Each structure stands twice: as C-alpha cells, then as structure tokens.
Amino acid sequence: MEDANIEKTLNSLDGINRPVASDHLVERIMKGIEKAEATVVEMSPFQRWSIAAGIFLLITLNVLTATRYSSPGKKAESAFVQEYFSYMNNQY
Amino acid sequence: MSETLFIQSLKEGNKEAFRILVNDLKDKVFNTSVSMLQNMEDAEDITQEVFIEVFNSVKNFKGDAKLSTWIYRITVTKCLEHQRKKSRKKRFGFMQSLFGESDKPSRDIPHFYHPGVQLENKERASILYLAIDQLPERQRTAFILNKTEDLSYAEIAEVMEISLSSVESLLVRAKQNLQEHLKEYYTKNEK
C-alpha cells in the first residue's frame, strides 16, 4: 500500500504542462536588456590604450617620487647609525 | 532563418532577434526556474536575469552547443546560485534566532503547487516537490530537467556538461533518495 502510494507520488509530475510566462514578463525582460545595454560603455581601442597609458604614467610618477623623496631620510638614518657606532667604538 | 544567422544577429545586438529569442524560450526558462526554486516570483526574477546574462554574453557564445542548451545551462547556474544565497540567508537567520537577535519565528518550508500539474496530482506533486528540495544539487537538477522539461538523457548531459552514464546514475540515485524521503514523509504523516 505504502509502496504504491510512493510510486504514485513519484509519477505525479507525469503530463506536467509548462506554465506560460506572462506578456508582462517579456516586457520586463526587454526593459532589463535595454537597461543593461545602456550601462555598457563602448570604447574604441585608441581610448582603451590612452587610459592604460595614463594609468601607467601615473604609477611610474608615483614610484619615481616615492624613491626620490625617501632617499634623504635613509641617508640621514645611516649617517646617524654610523655616528653612533663610531662614538661607541671610541668609548670602548 | 538558420540558427547560425540568428546567433549572428544576436551577437550584433539586434533587438528584434532578442525579442524572438525571449518569446521562444521564456516558457522553458521560466518553467525550469519554477521547478528549481519552487517560487513563482523568484522564477520571474531569475528568468529576467537569465536573458540579461544571455544579452551580455552572447558575444562569447562559441556555438559548440545548441543555443537552447546554453540558455538552459545559464538558467540552472542562476537557479543554483539563487538557492545557495537563500540558504546562506536562512542559516544566518537561524544563527540570529539562536542568539536571540531575531524575533522572527522559524517556519517550515511551505507546500509548493506547480501551476502546470494536473489537478488530480496537485497534492501528491506538492509532496514530491518537498522531497525534491532535499536532494543534492546535481540529482535535483537532473531530475527536474528530465521530469518537468522532458529533456532526454543526452540533452541533460549537454546542459550539465557530464557524460551520459553520469546522468543515468544521477537519475537512479535521485529516484532512490526520493523514495526514501517519501517513505519517511508518509510514515510521519500517517501516525
């Protein structure tokens, strides 16, 4: 009895019909597609390369500036260390 | 118009071609989503998302599968993603309720009545959907594609990108698991 019940339940999707999506859904999808299209920014290869070159230039300038202005600090630091050790050597 | 030409016009962004595609495949996408998600509103949202995804990525469609197979694949992926998101939210809600941060009572999964099921089978089908919901993802996908979309084993294999024998074994295991879940359900509910 129970097995027959289970079998009937397992077969209950036989002959199932597809629910029809409403026309309203089609319009909603088409609006969604238009919206998606509007957000896509089309760029020519020239524009793409210009942006890439700009970013590269910006990064290079940043790196150059960082290395240039960090050197005096390092020099001063090493001078201080040298001075300290020469003092210590003279003392002991 | 041949499928190759049709795909070409989709790739060119032809709106009329998209409208034809939506009209042709919306019911298939919607039906798969309805059965996978067991919720009409969520299925509508996913159907819209699927076609937007198709619009955005048709340029990358290589044509190694049929267009409908590719769209089924997107539908299944979107549905599974949606379900994972939902179960994460449920888990989070459960944790919150454990720590008393939420006063929402936890609720059982409601019965789902598929609008396409024959009237005399409605009650049984809703019980079957409860059992389907407990299947592992791949078994559930294969079973739904086979039972509600009436796809052949070969088509399911293409959609899921697995071999024919894997589809067969997934369906056998799905049926075994469903039998167990149903047995459990009827024993519990007959007491």
Number of strands of chain A: 0
Instruction: Give the rounded overall mean pLDDT of chain A.
Output: 83
Give the fraction of residues assigned to helices of chain B: over 70%
Summarize the helix and strand pattern of chain A as letters: HHH
- N-to-C terminal Cα separation of chain A, in Å? 102 Å
Oligomer: heterodimer
**Strand residue content of chain B:** under 5%
Helix tally of chain B equals: 8
Percentage of residues in DSSP E strands of chain A? under 5%
Helix content of chain A: over 70%
By DSSP, the count of extended strands of chain B is 0
Order of helices and strands of chain B: HHHHHHHH
| Euclidean distance between termini CA atoms of chain B | 60 Å
Structural class computed from helices and strand pairing of chain B = mainly alpha
Mean pLDDT of chain B: 88
Defining key terms:
heterodimer; A: 92 residues; mainly alpha; elongated; B: 191 residues; 8 helices; 73% helix
Describe the protein.
The complex is a heterodimer of chains A (92) and B (191). The termini of chain A are far apart. The model of chain A has no long low-confidence stretch (mean pLDDT 83). Chain A is built from three helices and no strands. By secondary structure, chain A is mostly helical. Chain A is 79% helix and 0% strand. Chain B is an all-alpha fold. Helices cover 73% and strands 0% of the residues of chain B. Chain B is built from eight helices and no strands. The longest helix of chain B is centred in the middle third of the chain and has 32 residues, at 67-98. The model of chain B has no long low-confidence stretch (mean pLDDT 88).
Write the layout of secondary structure elements.
The complex is a heterodimer of chains A (92) and B (191).
Chain A lengths: L1 H9 L12 H17 L5 H47 L1
Chain B lengths: L2 H9 L3 H23 L2 H18 L9 H32 L23 H11 L4 H11 L5 H8 L3 H27 L1
What's the gist of this structure?
The complex is a heterodimer of chains A (92) and B (191). Chain A is mainly α and 92 residues long.
